[in-house]
Write a structure and sequence with these properties.
The structure is a homodimer.
Chain A (H helix, E strand, L loop, with lengths): L1 E2 L2 E2 L2 H19 L4 E2 L1 H8 L3 H9 L11 E2 H11 L7 E5 L3 H7 L3 H4 L3 E7 L8 E2 L2 E5 L3 H7 L4 E4 L3 H13 L4 E4 L12 E4 L2 H17 L1
Parallel strand pairs in A: 5-6, 5-9, 6-8, 9-10, 10-11
Antiparallel strand pairs in A: 1-2, 3-4, 7-8
Helix pairs in contact in A: 1-4, 2-3
Chain lengths: ~210, ~210
């Protein structure tokens, strides 16, 4: 994955949200400055790893003196694109869709949920967390007119690829996919898969290996 | 993370569920043998990476001839502990809890959901996907008597650490946590956090950087 044209390892990118989260917690505790050593202890990453990670993005300065927490929080937020206010739709208003629509953290992070789509007539017209459920037939016009950037896919496995292809056609920029499929998309559509079962299998591995120790 | 006393990088462990998933799909298509080259193409990992990954677990043999898909599937499943039939409870029967309880993939992977707990009297006594919702007060006795091994935590943030501590006390082996907190647990309890919002932030990063390219 690139940053300003330079390659950045995927593992480094994946640590950015964690840094962002921790820095947000520090701010809540009114902690304004932190050394890489103290941040390292909280994050369970070595201080030199933190400095290396930050160097991909210009370093954020002031090693000896410690980092300015608010500045770092804002800079990492901007790198993550959290200041963009991405225009978002949710496709699929089942249990998982409901859970996602009710998840307060999204709006706090600047993702604007503008509509929910479902093909179940009983669901259409209902309102989840202040957002109306529209029928699938209206999706194309809505995505194009409202210039939707992100679609959250909380659909049955069989329906996902087809809807992903259509959304890519209609100009979507990113897909956040909860179906247990590996989406194939056009190159210019970003995809993040949340394969929850993979995480459960990793837990299973940890338990099993802990028993063998 | 360890395997038979040897350290295995966490990224390698995290690829195991993906291998398992792909091999399962190959089996469904009745593909019985696959070269590391062909597997590499499907997995979007280099063939040498695959061989390196497998070497942590003894190699699984037969490079020139290709891998036996069923053997590999079963071996990786065993390494992941999927043959253990872990005794599982779900704590929290909200939208996310419902989505998790209805997620067919868990039972297919050998996780046995034995009870669901919720402190909402309206929820207690209902049945989700064939599993009864019990009141929180019965959790301690149930976990101890039924020797529950895994607890899925789909709870409000504020309640999670307290219940995690209690479950650790009652002998649970692993926690699958969906709350947006970093759980601190006793060392012998395995924890997997599903921080969905981190994944959304990563998607946001990818979209933003794609625009800058």
């Amino acid at each position: 994955m690139q940053y300003n044209g330079k390659a950045v390892p995927a593992v480094v990118i994946r640590r950015l949200p964690r840094y962002y989260r921790y820095l947000g917690e520090l701010l809540k505790q009114d902690i304004r400055r932190i050394s890489s050593g103290a941040l390292s202890e909280k994050m369970n990453v070595t201080a030199s790893q933190i400095r290396q990670d930050f160097n991909y993005f210009g370093g954020f300065g002031q090693q000896g003196y410690g980092y300015n927490v608010e500045y770092l929080y804002q800079e990492i937020g901007a790198i993550l694109g959290l200041d963009e206010g991405y225009r978002t739709i949710l496709v699929g208003a089942g249990n998982l869709g409901h859970a996602l629509a009710n998840h307060g953290a999204f709006e706090k992070r600047g993702f604007r949920l503008m509509a929910i789509f479902d093909n179940d007539p009983k669901m259409v017209g209902t309102v989840i967390n202040g957002v109306e459920v529209l029928p699938d037939e209206e999706m194309e016009a809505f995505v194009k007119e409202q210039q939707i950037e992100i679609a959250i896919l909380a659909l049955p496995k069989a329906a996902t690829q087809k809807i992903a292809d259509a959304l890519a056609e209609w100009g979507i920029k990113g897909l956040w996919n909860f179906s247990y499929v590996e989406l194939k998309t056009k190159k210019n559509v970003a995809v993040e898969n949340v394969h929850m079962i993979d995480s459960l299998m990793t837990l299973s591995y940890k338990i099993k290996q802990a028993e063998n120790e």
